[in-house]
Amino acid sequence: MAKESGTDLILKLSNISKSFDNKEVLRKIDLQVNKGDFIAVVGKSGCGKSTLLRIIAGLEAISSGSVTVNGQELNGRNKLAKMMFQDGRLLPWKKVYDNVGLGLKLDWQKKQIPKVLDQVGLSERAQDWPSVLSGGQKQRVALARALIHEPQLLLLDEPLGALDALTRIEMHELIENLWREKQLTAILVTHDVEEAVALANRVLLVEAGEIVLDLPIRLPYPRQRDNPLYSKLVSQILNRIMGEKRNHVADLSLTK
Ligand SMILES: Nc1ncnc2c1ncn2[C@@H]1O[C@H](COP(=O)(O)OP(=O)(O)OP(=O)(O)O)[C@@H](O)[C@H]1O
């Protein structure tokens, strides 16, 4: 788990703003991410969550401010990061094995494909086409495709948004286990506050382009959904999103 000192800092956003066509969609964002953090970013549709993630991935330029990765100014793609999207982005004309191996040039990397498929529970499906997989299996392939590159930073843009509730819970367990085993740092954008509290050690709430809450979740892993604190955190974050007046972060820090 991340320490709270600056020594484990992997990512730092300092006073960043982003505008599209003169419309400011992110403003004055300061964020420090430590190695081992699992951060969930929640907020209403259009508040700027995905733009923030794309900036961290180096896929979107900032209008002002600075982004540093391990102390170095980010310039272009973030080489520590791999991103996983809601639609999985599998190539339908390539089998599972080849989707995972997409873009790999080196033999030792290709040799890791069976191991990574095993880690996501898809050893038996290596020679299947994406079209015969369930939604959850497709997202496991997408996860394997990110993990094969051994990223330090896993960026998850609403990756489970299209899955049914039970499959989502299975995927939460998988992602949490992999995060722990591989000592990843993860940033998850989600509409689902339950998912945020199930996985994250910090939940950020974005409102109209600003981080208005950075809430530590100090519940032990694996998270127990029947823990009263769990439900209380979920409903309080939801209330905050829906506009209930809560003026101080400390109001929500139930697990301190
Ligand atoms: N490439 C772009 N060009 C112009 N405007 C953009 C672009 N990308 C995002 N925006 C705008 O920036 C704002 C934030 O978009 P963003 O996708 O980051 O929000 P979000 O919180 O992820 O939304 P959702 O939850 O619906 O995915 C929106 O008003 C959106 O229309």
TrEMBL record:
Keyword entries, A-Z: ATP-binding, Cell membrane, Membrane, Nucleotide-binding, Translocase, Transport
Gene3D superfamilies: P-loop containing nucleotide triphosphate hydrolases
Keyword Ligase: no
Pfam family, one: ABC_tran
PROSITE patterns according to UniProt: ABC_TRANSPORTER_1, ABC_TRANSPORTER_2
GO molecular-function term, one example from the UniProt record: ATP binding
CDD domains attached to this UniProt entry: ABC_NrtD_SsuB_transporters
ABC transporter domain location: 11-233
Tagged with keyword Chloroplast: no
Record-given protein name: ATP-binding cassette domain-containing protein
Organism: Metabacillus rhizolycopersici
